Amino acid sequence: MKRAILTAGLAMLLMTVSAQENSYIVKTRNATKKVAVENLLTEEVEVEEEETATDFVGQHFKYYSLCDWKEGMKFMVMPEKYDLVVRTFCDAGTGKEVSSMSLRHKIMVYKGKSESSDGHWRMNFLCQDNGKLYYYEIPSGSFDDYCYGKLGVPTLAYLGDVDIAREQLLGKKLFTKTRVYRVDTEADGDGYRETLQPMNKEVTVTAVGVGTRHFPVKIIVEDELGNEYYQVVAMSKTNSGMRDDEFIMDSLKHTFYGAFELQDAVMKVNKDYKTYIGQIIHNKYKTEMITKGDGKERHVTIPKMMSFKVDNTLAMPNSPYVTLTLTEVESRRVFYKDVTFTNPVGNPNARTKEDEFFGYLFALGEGLDRETTQAARAAIQQGRVIVGMSEDEVILAMGEEPTSKENTSDGKYKWLYQRSSGILTINFGRNGRVESYVTPAENKKVSKKKQTRSKSASK
After folding, report:
1. What is the mean pLDDT of residues 65-89?
2. Is the pLDDT of residue 396 over 90?
3. How many angstroms separate the Cα of 147 from the Cα of each of 20, 69, 144?
4. Does residue 3 register a pLDDT over 80?
């Protein structure tokens, strides 16, 4: 048993070396090269979902049931941990089972079906890499019974979808449709980590390769910041081993239209909203928006009656939401807000809330007339408070209402913000402007001094 495991590990090590010359194996940047055999046995985490038929997928990616496979169709062996125990192929010359790991990343060309002398049906393959013949023996029953069950041949990822996806998508602009993508962690293994990305972000396809048996097409994209990440998707679902009704919920991101949207489709939908670009609007109610800085997203609370210029609108097909890119008129800070233009009031089937309806939340024209200094605008963009700010400017800078408010003497008052490093105290004068503030670090020093004095007094 130990010898078998060692053999599988050594075979896998050899396969990963040869995989570097395989054009179907693509990686995101910064994947690290590892040589330890145990690091090459990373388990593939699989998630699945349902896809709505679209023109792009329907026109280019034909589903082939096992019954319809034609000689010459190409597949790649993509074994998982389970395949270390249950072997898929037999050597046609010897009739002996072959380790799936020894065939890892090898291309298998379908050579038709045949019936053995003992009445078992076989799927025959020629290995393009070593020129040897192999077969997969159907466990039981006739070939027709097996192929109509949509079970397929284990370990095999259909390369026809990969080739078409390369031709159709390489270099194309797409938009992200889910938040969860992957980044390779191993240059010569299957390791990856998940990364959260904003939805509706424009990205460019930089590489297309083979993914897994269930999700054969690996699409690597790059965003405007130069970050690369990928998703593995099922296109035609040929030999995926999954039914259509299994592509639901979290698995939806493993279908093309669950993970990406074509630029042309997005542009077509967005024609209806182009008239809003360049308009000045204001929010009638306090609301939450997203702003970006240092490569991160922040959710901030915006006080009512703030004025914005609409820089862009981005709508996604089959989604009720439109993402507005808004520049605040005074501070010039950029915000993002998802809204719907369909009023949910009175519609029991509405998927959106009233405060997400554009007509409820926004109105055309300027909001309150605010005089904001250049220094205050710069501080708001950096998320910090300075002396002289108004209450609204403090809320914009901090991104939220204070944790608590306290009145002091002579009509003055202070706001307290609870932060991970301590409490930030902002002191306002009678004119409603910031007179001073005490940072969390300074508050801690004051607290320590009080504790020292208290101990001394008790002695």
Report:
1. 89
2. no
3. 34, 10, 5
4. no
Q: Is 277 in contact with 293 (CB distance < 8 Å)? A: no
Contact at 8 Å (CB) between 362 and 368? no
User: Mean pLDDT across the stretch 388-392?
Assistant: 88
- pLDDT above 70 as % of the chain: 82
Query: Does the pLDDT of residue 224 top 60, yes or no?
Result: yes
The per-residue pLDDT for 109 is: 97
CB-based contacts of 105, cutoff 8 Å, min separation 6: 15, 18, 19, 22, 24, 25, 76, 77, 78
122 and 137 Cβ atoms separated by less than 8 Å: yes
Which residue is it, tokens 């240059």? 187
**pLDDT on residue 459:** 54
Nearest Cα residue to 213 out of 63, 94, 405, 78: 78
Token match 């998508």: residue?
A: 169
C-alpha separations of 317 from 52, 235, 258, 354 in Å: 12, 18, 11, 21
What does 63-112 look like in DSSP terms, one character per residue? ---GGG--TT-EEEE---THHHHS--EEETTT--EE-GGGGTT-EEEEEE
Q: What are phi and psi of 359, to 5 degrees?
A: -65, -25
